[in-house]
Amino acid sequence: MRKEPINRISVKGLRVWRIYGIIQTLIILLLGIGTGVINYFTGNYIWLYIVAGAVVLLFGYLFIYLFPKVRWSRWRYEVRDQEIELQHGLFVVKRTLVPMVRVQHVDTEQGPILRKYDLSSITISTAATSHTIPALITEEADELRGRISVLARVAEEDV
């Protein structure tokens, strides 16, 4: 069996995923507050306040702390001359090999939160699907995009 890929995504990616978790938790909090207001005017069941509070706290713990930590620790990638290997997952770890001859194009993407932390994501497109390597330092992402592009052209010429 092959060793797992050696490269990790940036530790700043952990912070970005936690920010996403905070945003998602705030949305759930607003839904919980809405539920509480409706409950106040309709039935005023005390247990509903407890359930809504527990859901918000559990969601916050999972999406701000636990899931980003596990995702970051499992995300690995490696670009070789003939293939790109990706490993990621939360509950189930998925390992993918993308042959260089199948790569059609490579894109980098940077949203406002990624830009704040000087991060970018790379999307590798094949005829069948696309694969994303998230949260790379922007300079590293640009170099990797160029390297994959060159290796994909060389692999295509060999066919």
Structure characterization notes:
With 159 residues, this protein is α+β, with helices and mostly antiparallel strands. The protein has helices spanning 12-42, 46-74, 112-116, 138-158; strands spanning 7-8, 76-79, 83-88, 94-99, 105-109, 119-125, 130-137. The strands form 2 sheets. It has a 4-stranded antiparallel sheet with strand order 1-2-3-4. Strands 5-6-7 form a 3-stranded antiparallel sheet. The longest helix has 31 residues, at 12-42. It is elongated. It starts with 6 loop residues before the first strand and ends with a helix. The mean pLDDT is 93.
In DSSP terms (H or I, runs of 4 or more residues), the helix count works out at 4
Unreliable runs: none
Distance between the termini: 27 Å
Helical fraction equals 40-55%
The biggest sheet, with number of strands, parallel, antiparallel or mixed sense and barrel status, is: 4 strands, antiparallel
The number of E-state strands comes to 7
Average pLDDT, to the nearest integer? 93
User: How much of the polypeptide forms β-strand, as a percent range?
Assistant: 15-25%
Q: Given the helix and strand composition, which structural class is it? A: alpha+beta
Global outline: elongated
Which radius of gyration do the C-alpha atoms yield? 21 Å
SSE run: EHHEEEEHEEH
Q: Which strand order does the major sheet show?
A: 1-2-3-4
